[in-house]
Amino acid sequence: KPASAAAAPGLRLRWNARESSVSVENLFVFECKTAAEALRFYRTGVKNRVVASHQMNQASSRSHCILMLTVERTSSEGLATDLRTAKLTLVDLAGSERQAETGATGQTFRESVSINQSLFVLRKVITALARRQKQ
Questions:
Q1: pTM value?
Q2: Complete DSSP assignment for 8-58
Q3: What is the mean pLDDT of the chain?
């Protein structure tokens, strides 16, 4: 593991077979009553993103970012209550980087290595899921 990965253990993903969904341990969940509230939390997340500059990009994202929105609507007609739920997941992946092109050194270089490794693993997961769907 790179030195930066040893210092920060990362997040753990958990598969929930009952709900056919993935959850991430130790993430913040906020209940919002308005779009303005949701946008305020989104902006807070954007402020907490880690970026660094190098020869190719002034503000290179050094991590992946996931925003999951769950919208629930409840309506009542007579004695029956109808709950409808919609889920939207937005993913911003840090891009792969070539050291020769970015000129990255030190911590930025180590982050690039970690980013490239995680993108490689993600590619393997997507490929395995695609093969499984074809069968």
A1: 0.57
A2: S----EEEETTTTEEEETT------SSHHHHHHHHHHHHHT--EEEETTEE
A3: 78
